[in-house]
Design goal:
Layout: H1 11-20, E1 26-28, E2 33-34, H2 35-43, H3 49-56, H4 66-81
Antiparallel strand pairs: 1-2
Helix pairs in contact: 1-4, 2-3, 2-4
This protein binds FE2/S2 (inorganic) cluster (FES).
FE2/S2 (inorganic) cluster binds at residues 28-30, 58-59, 61-65.
């Protein structure tokens, strides 16, 4: 389920902000997967939770990070589709 993004920044600015905001902290604490690893997977074309999970092994536990991960996927998707 996608939620609407309520961003104060443009998607491109938000993506850059997210990359600087705790990139080495685990986004998936169940599998110790840093946020930056998941963001890199998204940048390489993983546009679903399953695809990011396949590349990083994140979000395979109780899927408690699913919402945060989907938010990043949505930001990146809007970044690509928005023309600045
Ligand atoms: S934090 Fe990612 S599956 Fe639990």
């Amino acid at each position: 389920m996608r939620e609407s993004l309520n961003l104060k920044r443009s998607p491109a600015e938000q993506w850059d902000y997210e990359k600087q905001k705790g990139p080495d902290r685990n986004l998936c604490t169940c599998y110790d997967i840093p946020k930056i690893d998941m963001m890199r997977a998204i940048e390489k074309g993983a546009d679903t939770i399953d695809k990011v999970s396949a590349q990083t092994y994140g979000c395979q536990g109780s899927q408690c990070c699913e919402r945060q991960l989907q938010r990043l996927i949505d930001i990146y998707g809007q970044k690509d589709s928005s023309s600045d």
